Amino acid sequence: MPKPHAPVPGHTHARALDSDGNPVITTSGLTKVYRSRGREVTALDGVDLHVREGEVYGVIGQSGAGKSSLIRCVNLLERPTSGTVTVAGQDLTALAGRGPRAGRELRQARSRVGMVFQHFNLLSTRTVQDNVELPLEILGTSGKERSRRALELLDLVGLADKAKAFPAQLSGGQKQRVGIARALAGDPKVLLSDEATSALDPETTRSILQLLRDLNRQLGLTVLLITHEMDVVKSICDSAALMERGRIVEHGTVSELLATPGSELAAALFPVSGERTGDDRTVLDVTFHGEAATQPVISQLARTYNVDISILGAAIDTVGGLQIGRMRIELPGRYEDNVVPIGFLRERGLQIDVVGDEGRGPESVLVKEGAK
Amino acid sequence: MTWSEMQPLLSQACTDTLTMVVWSTLIAVAVGLPLGVLLVLTDRGGLVQNVVVNKVIGQIVNVGRSMPFIILMVALMTFTRWVTGTTIGTTAAIVPLAIGGIPFFARLVETAVREVDNGLVEAVQSMGGSTWTIVRKVLVPEALPSLIASTTTTIIALIGYSAMAGTVGGGGLGDLAVRYGYQRFETQMMWITVAILAVAISLIQFAGDFAARSLHSRGARSGPAPRLRLLKAKESAAADVSKAA
Fold first, then answer.
1. Membrane-crossing residues (chain B) (predicted)?
2. Of A165, A335, B7, B19, which sits most exposed with the smallest number of CB within 10 A?
3. Looking at the predicted structure, is the pLDDT value of residue B109 above 90?
4. At what angle do helices B77-84 and B90-114 cross, to 10 degrees?
């Protein structure tokens, strides 16, 4: 188990894939119902979320899916109607009390969870440094220590020279860096990111995501982020969950999702397309994930069976020396002719889905044959 | 009426108006600010939601706001006597002025504080800030430019109200204009008081705008307005000169 604040070298997608670290954020049966003028709107409908220590966990969904309610329930900015939230072993829902006001214990627990926002939420009347010092003022840190820590954090996010500037003088990306520095001031174990990059242009989005990834690796920071952009999940998340109408419909590590046939998230993360070019051809979706996908299998296949392979489409990333993603390939001949090559690919540990108007019927036949 | 006759009257009237307006503004701000903040906090969905308190304060503020000042002044006489020991004179006039100013300022504060982005409140909550921290570090500082503008408006309204203080022998410029300019047909006296009031109000408005703007400019997207920048440049140039000397 990695120590919370020790640097974790070599922490990559791959490490996280087979990590069975302790859950640092757990929600169980989380339900949130909004009542207004006699009408009830269920924003969260029994959400069970498990975020492990040191991972970047992305929750993706369309607006109105309940993502915002979920992340706000994690630090109890929203009171869940029912269910429990545990962060770093502490049951926050138990600390909440009955009234809408946050008691001392809950406030202390919140100060150990950092949060960054879509619209940055920096105080316009304070300088950058004073904004970063705000959480430390709340914690009661002395003036000297506050300023030392604030400058250290601004240095960490690459804004040491902007300490005396006001937020209005910064670009969007710089504002979000200040937001991140501020969220880290209380030395949190967990960072919540509420659409942190949604107000930024693609270039700035990349740099902010890179920063989050670096912080995740350097500080062992667990990041829970919500987003509606698939690219965010693809570029930094170890695990992801898909939300629809207040429920988590799919979740798992990126690799697990890829291994799940018919996973909407996997299809959206690694979209492949391409139509078959003729009737007497077989179209396969090859899914690369995990340790198995280290060999150049496609060229091995071509050489071993002397077949011509067309690549119709591919969405593949190489992370930590492993290939993750999907490729749609076309082999000459019908299914019956390609049983052996498909078996070869399966032996190599790849997941093969046969695409075609015949549907899943022939494929299941092939699976049985492969099993023999 | 010659200038030597008018001059002592005018200077006394100015002092009286100044006394009444300064004191009543101070009281109106001191009481109206927390009241206005409380109106926001106790509102539905507010940080310390309390519908009963909100409705009661709201109602009191509404009644106070809609009451014509002259009636308020007469209605408050018993209270004024209890506080100041008298119902006539400048000191006695401060009481109804302050009480008239409180709901006026409270409503303006409420509007100004409501304008503060709720995201900022949420951010400070997520850091573990208490409601008091939020009021002190977010709501009031972020609303400060508007609050200064509200204070300016209140001062000017109180100058207007203070004209009626003559009814209870409070004195002041408005009283002078009524007694000499209107009742004794001393048109000259009336125009002088009008001029003094016009200049005073313009100066207050200008000072208020300037203060609000120079505070706001730090938060504004475009930075300080050109004229302010010019002033700042002059100031820094002057500072350089003094340093060099």
1. 20-42, 63-82, 88-106, 146-169, 189-212
2. B7
3. yes
4. 110
Give the model's pLDDT for residue A10.
37
Closest-CA distance of chain A to residue B42, Å: 12
- Cβ separation of B128 and A101 shorter than 8 Å? no
CA angle A109, B113, B17 (to 5 degrees): 140
Nearest residue in A to B141, CA atom: A125
Per-residue pLDDT, A21: 65
CATH number for the domain running over A13-112+188-259: 3.40.50.300
Q: Which of A79, A98, A125, A224 to mutate to test the interface with B (most CBs of B within 10 A)?
A: A125
Q: Give B148-166 pLDDT, tens digit per residue.
A: 999 999 999 999 888 887 7
Place of tokens 């009283």: B175
Question: Phi-psi category of A38—alpha, beta or left, where left has phi over 0 and alpha has psi -120 to 50?
Answer: left
- Residues of chain B contacting residue A121, judged by C-beta atoms under 8 Å apart: 117, 119-120, 122-123
CB atoms A110 and B48 under 8 Å:
no
Under DSSP, the state recorded for A157 is: T
Residue extents of the structural domains in chain A:
13-112+188-259, 270-371
Q: What is the CATH number that goes with domain A270-371?
A: 3.30.70.260
Contact in structure between B179 and B167 (CB atoms under 8 Å): no
Kind plus residue range of the DSSP H or E element containing A288: strand A281-288
Mean pLDDT of A275-281: 81
Residue B56 is predicted with a pLDDT of 94
This prediction has a pTM of: 0.79
CA nearest to A335, candidates A346, A347, A325, A343 = A343
Band of residue A1 on the pLDDT scale cut at 50, 70, 90: very low
For residue B180, the 8-state DSSP code is I
d(CA A59, CA B33): 42
Rounded to whole angstroms, the Cα distance separating B14 from B226 reads 35
Sequence ranges of the domains in chain B? 17-244
Average pLDDT, chain A: 83
Neighbours of A253 (CB within 10 A): 22
Cβ contact A111–B128 (<8 Å): yes
8 A C-beta contact, residue B13 and residue B193: yes
Question: Hey, what CATH class is B17-244 in?
Answer: mainly alpha
ipTM associated with this complex? 0.77
> What's the rounded Cα separation, in Å, for the pair A56 and A213?
8
